[in-house]
Amino acid sequence: MITRRSFLQSSAAAAAFAASAGSARAETPGVTDTEIKIGQTMPYSGPASAYGVIGRTEAAYFKMINEQGGINGRKINLISLDDGYSPPKTVEQVRRLVEQEQVAFLFQTLGTPPNLAIRQYLNDNKVPQLFVATGASVFADPEHFPWTMGYNPNYQTEARIYGKHILATKPDAKIGVLYQNDGFGKDYLIGLKDALGADHASMIIKEVSYETSEPTVDSQIVTLQGSGADVFLIAATPKFAAQAIRKAFDLGWNAVRYVTIVSVSIATVLKPAGLEKSKGLITAYYGKDSADARWKDDAGMKEWAAFCAKYLTPTDFIDSNALYAYGAGGTMIQVLKQCGNDLSRDNIMKQAASLKDLELPLLLPGMRINTSPTNYSPIRQMQLASFDGESWQLFGELLKG
Amino acid sequence: MSGSSGSQRFAATLAVLACALAFPFLASGYHLYQGAQVLILAIALLGLNLLTGFNGQISLGHGAFFAIGGYGAAILTAKFGVPYWAAIPIASLVCFGAGFLFGFPALRFGGLYLALATFALAVATPQILSYKGFDAWTGGSQGVLLAKPHAPFGLLNADQWIYLVCLLCAAALYWAARNLATGRIGRALIAIRDQPIAAETMGVNAALYKTTCFGVSALYAGVAGGLSAIAVGFVSPESFGLSLSLSFLVGIVVGGLASLGGVLFGALFIEFVPNLADQLSVNFGESAKALPGAIYGLLLILLMAAMPTGVAGALRAVARVFGRGFASRRQSGIEGGGAASASREM
């Protein structure tokens, strides 16, 4: 029975193969002449539901693409399922996507733990896990996981940029680091040490961590000041970054302060910390900020505004997660365009790993996305910015971490 | 009457078991994964139902014991190379110890106060799991990855095998819980729940029963947690959040308090209703993606309004209606009417 069925299948495949004259699409699940089916998990419910806007924006983006005629005559059908940011649920939903819905590949599944939980399964089954929505550096590992590719500039990349800037501007710096005790915080420590190298590792004179369950990080800041550090790296999520910025200022500690890209929002971090107290902070940017008046007449920002007006809501316009998703959608479309009519999983992965100087409307001017079979980190460039009391001012050149 | 209901229950148990055994040979890998999740949840709910349903101790923190079982099994297999079939019993014995010890402070709390104390346990769990002192074992927020077990002699695929292992554990633990609940111990547990003073007067050692019940309940949660780690192949603090503990409580109430068969319905509810809510929310347009939580809540309210004593309670009521209907029909002939006598009984 099995032999007969597999014989039938293989002969059907052979017939299709002959009919489509060398095209491999008949073998790719989810791909027909009129449709490409893509899967995704998103935390629409649960503790991380603020990120749900990413899935909504991407669905809207593909809707726009479909209204413009799709890619090579194929409409994109994004199936975005709720996983509540719970890894067991992610595994279940991804198996549903791959085995029941028969999607061609996965796109922007969100979160470090959910992506870790499904990575082995997807690599075992050779299903592309493209542009995962997390900054963890572990997803850019083509050697061990050739079917998994990151997207965000990862936290280590960012920390390496800070390290290089410190070496260039303050070679005798004494560095104090405040980091959140998890993968996110530790990535900064690893990246910073990496950039400093073995010769300058002693520049870090104090590392202090905190738990997200702690009410404040005041005592950590006092410890760091007491160590005599004159450069202060804040690898903390918004609430704790605001506390750190304010406390460092209140103590009269005039160290050069670097703050992670995660905590640069003027509304949720710098205002609570105090705009005056935030003056002089340094961070690294890769995207345009829709709340920043500088980009008002920028072509990319106008494109985004028009998109929001038609497909999203006014609150989404200033949501940095929505801007992020718009860029990810654009990257995905570029990959599908490059695939042409060969939408086999092999070719999708191959094209994702051969992006050349892709520019996106909402990335900083001059930034280009590049990937290769050995480079699975699409966005690697950033530009430093300092806070002048009102807004972030970009300075210097684009840097590569 | 009791004899016939006993044989009915036996027949129902056999039917469920037969379906459960046939399932792995008919279903796809994805459905087997879901089936395993339902069985795992059912095991955890059995444990919680022994504690809350039979003994009246409310626990909002069973996710913590589930987490100990999960991490225990994951660490033993991934870091110490212990085979999974040995890791799960070891991890669940650790859970028994933890639950037994937690039972002592629990003796001093009653009702809502115990609920709050266990609630704190559920809140603390993810943070304790990511505590840096334990990083070497727990992997911090990155969690622990573990390899999927393979069926002996390669007879079945991994999904079928995991499902059958879960089924075996669930059946054995159900049998154990039934023996526990219907015998002398079960009567003592119920007596402590309903009339603690009278129970002590009768010579029931309330402290021993309550702490042991807590321990056994935690052991069930631990087995479930260990199986979950094996089935998912990954544990992280996010897998054991507060919502897990709350969903357990939802599960036993939906299934029916103090009903061992009801846990199956509770587990089905926890597993499938969030998916259903997600699918329903699509009908409200793309921008309504934030709705699954609200729809889930609505479905829960509707269900509890329709079945205030849980699915098991509703099934019992239906069976009673039919049972009385047939009985009265036999007594008073056709014109007596099953419906009239049934409504009188209600």
Main features:
heterodimer; A: 401 residues; alpha/beta; Rossmann fold; 2 domains; four-stranded parallel β-sheet; 13 helices; disordered N terminus; B: 346 residues; mainly alpha; two-stranded antiparallel ribbon; 2 strands; 1% strand; disordered C terminus
Description:
The complex is a heterodimer of chains A (401) and B (346). By secondary structure, chain A is α/β, with parallel strands linked by helices. Chain A is 42% helix and 16% strand. A 4-stranded parallel beta sheet of chain A has the order 2-1-3-4, with helices on both faces. Chain B is built from 15 helices and 2 strands. A two-stranded antiparallel sheet of chain B has the order 1-2. In chain B, helix 2 (29-54) packs across helix 12 and helix 11 (242-255) crosses helix 12 (262-281). The model of chain B is unreliable at 332-346 (pLDDT under 50). At the A-B interface, helix 2, strand 2, helix 3, helix 4 and helix 6 of A face helix 2, helix 10, strand 2, helix 12 and helix 13 of B.
In quaternary terms, these chains amount to heterodimer
Identify the strand order in the major beta sheet of chain B.
Answer: 1-2
Determine the most extensive contact between two protein chains. A-B, 48 and 39 residues
Enumerate the spans of chain A where pLDDT stays under 50 for 5 or more consecutive residues.
Answer: 1-25
Tell me, briefly, the overall form of chain B: globular
For the largest beta-sheet of chain A, the strand count, sense and barrel status come to: 4 strands, parallel
Percent helix of chain A: 40-55%
SSE sequence of chain B, one letter per element: HHHHHHEHHHHEHHHHH
User: Helix and strand succession of chain A?
Assistant: HEHEHEHEHEHEHEHEHEHHHHEE
What's the CATH topology name of the largest domain in chain A?
Answer: Rossmann fold
Indicate the radius of gyration of chain B in whole angstroms.
22 Å
Please work out how many helical segments of chain B DSSP would assign: 15
What kind of sheet is the major sheet of chain B? 2 strands, antiparallel
In what order do the strands lie side by side in the largest sheet of chain A? 2-1-3-4
The secondary structure category of chain B is mainly alpha
What helical percentage do the residues of chain B reach? Answer: over 70%
- Arithmetic mean pLDDT of chain B: 87
* Stretches with pLDDT under 50, minimum 5 residues of chain B: 332-346
- The CATH superfamily of the largest domain in chain A appears as Response regulator
Number of strands of chain B: 2
Mean pLDDT of chain A: 89
